[in-house]
């Protein structure tokens, strides 16, 4: 084992120490930068009027200006169905979707954004005041495929196929013309009950001072909602479309469906919890600038919700979000212990290999090895005495250094053996010098 020892000069040890400190500092800096680096999530949004994109962009801008650790990259997908398709295809981490549109199997809710209310509206003066009176008529479905889920629910509940009710897809820009041309007897829309969208609905019909659009109730909304699907029963308040005279003149029962900000279920729970917290903060700060933000609220957190809440969002809204110490306390406590154990193992391996800084016998032995040549060339007794004193000094110094060390006994034996050889050489040289002096 002794032959495996490697002598490390001071400068080598210093370089190694500085190198280790640089590595540790660099690793700490990288870890800090990684921890502090903002997470950017792509969110797919879409609406027929572009309102969803504007609202999402407002939130994204606010998160960027407040140095939020979570940022949003807004992707305009066209409409809510396109946004759902982009999300299902994995092209976005988040999406603003409607609960009854698209493949949402991988979606988990982060926040509710608004509600869309189903309106079946007939022109002013129409005699169609109930779904039963839609028999043999055509209903224009504004938004087309986006609202096919509502159409299927109505067909199933009211057996509209036997009533010969026809549903025709209509683009929003073509809805007013279709009503005026009497291509449709009524329009089916799903819109939030905000001033912006109610104005759009009113603009689809010619109103008079005495008559307004006719809202057709969905009296079986409760039965449809009981199927645990995406819909719930809702009453449109009296006077929603017009105040005087009120339109409708009484509350009208219909369906309502929720819009959500959803996240992929595989996204980190801590990231989503922080995102939910930041969005609720933006809502509080900016609702005065954009009334659409008023609809943002906690999603349904029940286990049997139609779309389950993301674990991170649920933790935030339930107040069970873990603190920094809750998440990393064990690691902080155990890391020093683990590092200490690794240091002990490393020290043991270092000692086993014999690779250590050794100020033991090697320099002294080297000095001893150089002395025989000097002794043989000495021509004066005083020089021999000086060499003897040098040997004694080196031997004392080295024995003092190795005293108490585990390997001190073995090194002392080597030094004593070398010193004895030098004593023999000195004695032999002294005899030779004495002989020469006698001859002279």
Defining traits:
single chain, 440 residues, alpha/beta, ten-stranded mixed beta sheet, two-stranded parallel ribbon, rod-shaped, disordered N terminus
Give the total of beta strands.
14
The percentage helix is 40-55%
Alpha-carbon distance between the two ends: 53 Å
Average residue-wise pLDDT? 84
Class from helix and strand fractions: alpha/beta
Taking all Cα atoms into account, the compactness measure Rg is: 44 Å
Could you tell me the strand content as a percent range? Answer: 15-25%
The biggest sheet amounts to:
10 strands, mixed
The SSE string, one letter per element, is: EHEHEHEEEHEHEHEHEEEEHHHEHHH
Q: Please report the number of helical segments.
A: 13
Indicate the overall shape: rod-shaped
Low-confidence runs: 1-5, 356-361
Any overview of this molecule?
The structure is a single chain. This protein is α/β, with parallel strands linked by helices and 440 residues long. It has 13 helices and 14 strands. The chain has helices spanning 10-36, 51-65, 80-88, 148-158, 175-180, 195-202, 221-225, 269-286, 311-318, 324-353, 361-377, 381-402, 408-439, and strands at 6-7, 39-45, 70-76, 94-98, 107-122, 138-142, 166-170, 186-191, 214-215, 231-236, 242-243, 246-247, 252-264, 355-356. The strands form 3 sheets. Strands 2, 3, 4, 5, 6, 7, 8, 9, 10 and 13 form a 10-stranded mixed beta sheet that branches. A two-stranded parallel sheet has the order 1-14. Strand 11 and strand 12 (246-247) form a beta hairpin. Helix 12 (381-402) runs antiparallel to helix 13 (408-439). The two termini are 53 Å apart. 30% of the residues are buried.
